[in-house]
Amino acid sequence: MFFYLSKIFWALAQPLSVILLLIAVGVVLSIMARRRLAIVAQGLAGLTVLLVGFTSLGSVLIQPLENRFPRQAGPEQISSIIVLGGATQSRIGGARGVTELNAAGDRMTAALVLARRYPDAPLIFSGGIGTIISEGETEAASARRFFSSRVSLRNGWCWRTRLATPTRMRNSLLA
Questions:
Q1: Do residues 142 and 129 make contact, with C-beta atoms less than 8 angstroms apart?
Q2: pLDDT tens digits, one per residue of 130-163
């Protein structure tokens, strides 16, 4: 249930949806002869387009959070590498037979660096299909293709293709 609610929330809360909502409110206010309020709504929509689309506002807002924790040097030995899903465009990649990385693709390349640095550590990748309508391949399948073309796959690596509940994840980590 949370999965569906989170998808619906983000569909309404993302900047493009807010812009479209402001435009719709402006049109309705214009029809209702509320000219000043319509101009305010349309102006806010235009200002949002300018701020989100043509400035680095998003980067400026996220920078304090990203800089809050300094990057640390890796330990001598690790027990496993866990990579969370959300780094691939599985619909595009599945159709083309390649792995398409999105803005979070750095987690895949960082895992690749760790897999080469710690060759004995098992790699655990958790990623299903992150859309309400299941289309394309799972992210685990995309990750398997990504890693298999860059490093030799080992038996200790785990590719989860279904949604992992905390109990399932704990059992897979302990197994």
A1: no
A2: 666 666 677 777 777 777 776 665 555 655 545 4
Query: Mapping DSSP to helix (H, G, I), strand (E, B) and coil, where does residue 95 land?
Result: helix
Q: Whole-prediction pTM value? A: 0.60
Q: In the chain, how long is the greatest CA-to-CA distance?
A: 70
Residues 89 and 31 in one domain: no
Query: What CA–CA distance (Å, rounded) separates 146 from 85?
Result: 13
CA 110 to chain centre: 15
Q: Where do the H-state alpha helices sit in the chain?
A: 2-13, 15-31, 35-54, 57-66, 90-96, 106-117, 139-148, 166-174
Q: Is residue 158 part of a domain?
A: yes
- How many of the other CB atoms lie within 10 Å of CB of 88? 29
CA-nearest of 30, 32, 66 to 45 is 30
Q: Are residues 38 and 103 in the same domain?
A: no
Buried b (16+ CB within 10 A) or exposed e, 95-115: eeeebbbeeebebbeebbebb
Domain match, 91 and 48 both: no
CA distance 77 to 89: 32
pLDDT digits (tens, 9 = 90+) for 19-54: 999 999 999 999 998 999 999 999 999 998 998 888
Question: In terms of residue numbers, what domain contains 157?
Answer: 81-163
